[in-house]
Design brief:
The protein is an alpha/beta fold. The protein has 17 helices and 15 strands. The model has no long low-confidence stretch (mean pLDDT about 95). The structure holds nicotinamide-adenine-dinucleotide.
């Protein structure tokens, strides 16, 4: 019998299951995707994350980690399944409900159930707790129930899983203390115990804080472009104030967290979330604004090719989900442009209807303009010649203030930078 059963073996669940296994727990990893289960049972993963392949292999070799498509009896259940929003920004809790129903069939009195998925306030008790109650297991009486959010930074997940401070929100204090014992086996960060509602709210506040502050930086960038100011310099100067820390502007936000989680607040509390909704709108309209700016140069003929560099939503990671590149690709296609997307880290495939390739030359070939969207290290040193040799046009938009502008200009490019006047 497993000691810990982890449901959802993605960017959060797989590292968690592996770390628990290498800490000595007997772990059953559960995923509805049979390919993920098959991979894990041969000690492998398709996810690209620093150190993850080695960790998964070590966990597999230890004999402490096996995978299956269905949960089995266990002492502790940890739910790490996706919690996306629907296209109209509604909350989609189907995976959490399915995972809770799957474990409700095998949970026994005295077990601990932990929800780690980022969720609207009240999900732990009103969704997971309710499903357990329907199976005759009252949270706080028959089973322990907790919400424990994850704060990992993609690209540094394993180190952060171990070292970050943790919030453990118990439906009861006893539940929180029980969960603390599990995390204490691998976590080296400080632990704060609270209730499930506060833990859920604080996780959503963290990502909403990021979204609103990025929208603020993007608003400053828009103002700077009209005011004839270099926003990057202005931000650097403003941040010399001891109590000011303005974030960097950019092409929008991506991933499964920052563009998603504020909607959980907006959906549930429409009266108090005008600011949050506006921030979402600012970040989500950056792509259209960038296209407007390119079009205004007159150097982007109708139907011409646009090369987008950086499909991942963050520097040096392989995850293109909900990324500004995908949003911009859709927006450019809708305007009749041909689009080619490159990323040195993302597995070449079609993502959300957009093909992403790993050949820079093929992406730039015959393009009228190129847009830098992600500040991957690999793009930093690219010379103007690399662009000039492949592209037809001489127009570049750098949304991260990241490229070698002097070299590009030497090669004859018109260089636009987000947050800087033309
Ligand atoms: N990725 C991050 O950096 C990060 C950070 C903090 C919090 N989170 C949150 O953690 C949760 C999981 O995110 P992720 O990035 O690991 O997602 P993911 O998409 O990488 O992985 C989720 C996995 O769950 C599986 N799954 C779906 N429904 C299932 C079910 N009913 N039972 C078992 N498995 C199921 C999927 O097949 C997939 O393999 C989300 O709520 C997310 O917001 C993610």
């Amino acid at each position: 019998m497993a000691e810990v059963c982890v449901l959802g073996l993605g960017y959060v669940g797989l590292p968690t299951a592996s770390v628990l296994a290498t800490a000595g727990f007997q772990v059953l990893g559960v995923d509805v995707n049979p390919k993920v289960v098959e991979q894990l049972n041969s000690g492998k993963t398709l996810l690209k994350e620093t150190g993850l392949a080695t960790l998964v292999s070590a966990a597999h070799k230890s004999g402490n980690l096996v995978a299956a498509v269905k949960p089995e009896a266990s002492d502790t259940f940890i739910i790490c399944v996706p919690t996306p929003v629907t296209p109209d920004h509604g909350v989609d809790l189907r995976a959490v409900e399915a995972a809770a129903r799957a474990i409700a069939a095998v949970v026994k009195p005295g077990n601990l159930v932990i929800l780690e998925s980022t969720s609207p306030v009240g999900t732990t008790r009103n969704v997971v707790g309710r499903i357990l109650s329907e199976h005759g297991l009252a949270p706080g009486q028959d089973v322990h129930l907790c919400y424990c959010p994850e704060r990992v930074l993609p690209g540094n997940t394993i180190a952060e899983l171990i070292n970050n401070d943790r919030i453990i929100g118990g439906f009861t204090r006893e539940s929180a203390e029980h969960a603390q014992e599990i995390y204490a086996r691998f976590s080296q960060g400080n632990v704060a115990l609270t209730d499930d509602l506060t833990a859920e709210m604080s996780k959503l506040m963290e990502n909403t804080f990021r979204d609103v502050n990025i929208a603020l930086a993007n608003s400053f960038a828009r103002i700077a472009e009209d005011a004839g100011v270099n926003v990057w310099e202005a931000i650097q100067l403003a941040n010399r104030h001891p109590r000011v820390q303005i974030l960097s502007p950019g092409p929008g936000v991506g991933g499964h967290c920052i563009p998603v989680d504020p909607w959980f607040f907006v959906q549930a509390f429409p009266k108090h979330t005008e600011l949050l909704k506006k921030a979402r709108e600012v970040n989500d309209t950056q792509a259209e604004r960038m296209l407007d700016r390119l079009a205004a140069t007159g150097d982007l003929p109708a139907g011409s090719k646009l090369a987008l560099l950086g499909a991942a939503y963050k520097a040096n990671i392989d995850d293109p989900r909900e990324s500004p590149a995908l949003r911009m690709a859709h927006a450019a296609t809708a305007r009749g442009f041909r689009v080619s997307v490159h990323d040195p880290h993302v597995e070449p495939a079609t993502w959300e209807g957009v093909p992403i390739g790993a050949e820079l030359g093929a992406c730039l070939k015959d393009a009228a303009a190129a847009v830098l969207l992600t500040e991957h290290t690999a793009y930093r040193a690219l010379s103007g010649r690399v662009f000039a040799e492949a592209m037809q046009g001489r127009l570049i938009l750098d949304t991260r203030n990241w490229l070698n502008h002097a070299s590009l200009r030497l090669s004859g490019f018109k260089v636009l930078v987000l947050g800087r006047p033309a």
